[in-house]
Design goal:
It is built from 3 helices and 7 strands, in the order H-E-E-E-E-H-E-H-E-E. The protein has a domain of 83 residues: Nucleotidyltransferase, domain 5, CATH 3.30.420.270. The N and C termini lie far apart (89 Å). A hairpin with a 2-residue loop joins strand 3 and strand 4. The strands form 2 sheets. It has a 5-stranded mixed sheet. Helix 2 packs parallel to helix 3. It is an alpha/beta fold. 31% of the residues lie in helices and 19% in strands.
Length: 135
């Protein structure tokens, strides 16, 4: 039997799994990191209407939401009433599109509308869900 001069007798000549393990760990890290950055969405159950008209957005629109617990949100970030009013002041020419959950308390809604009107806001759209039977 001829012996290979470059191979020691004690060495294992099997397949090296180190690159495979590296790839598996990189894939694991990729999937963990991609699931961490998915934003949670806010569930707003809109009331249904039969005679609502669709509005066309003009220029910049602030999209705000009021959930069933009476909390305001802008871009999935919870805001207090003072922060909402500061946001209105920051965008004085923007129209306001308000998504209000049908189970939301009425008082925060009225307070926001009152404060927005006091700041001269006339373009406030309250978004609803169209009735399924409406053509």
């Amino acid at each position: 039997m001829v012996q290979d001069p470059f191979c020691d007798e004690g060495e294992d000549s099997g397949i090296d799994l180190t690159p495979l393990i590296d790839v598996v760990f990189m894939l694991l890290i990729f999937f963990i990191m991609s699931t961490v950055f998915i934003k949670p969405s806010i569930h707003i159950d809109l009331p249904r209407t039969e005679h609502a008209a669709q509005q066309q957005a003009r220029g910049t629109t602030l999209v705000l939401a009021l959930d069933a617990a009476g909390q305001f949100f802008h871009q999935e970030q919870q805001l207090a009433m003072g922060e909402m009013l500061a946001l209105l002041d920051e965008y004085p020419d923007a129209s306001v599109n308000l998504f209000v959950d049908k189970r939301a308390p009425f008082e925060p809604f009225i307070q926001f509308i009152d404060q927005a009107k006091a700041r001269g806001r006339e373009e406030i759209v309250v978004t609803t869900q169209p009735d399924e039977n409406t053509p």
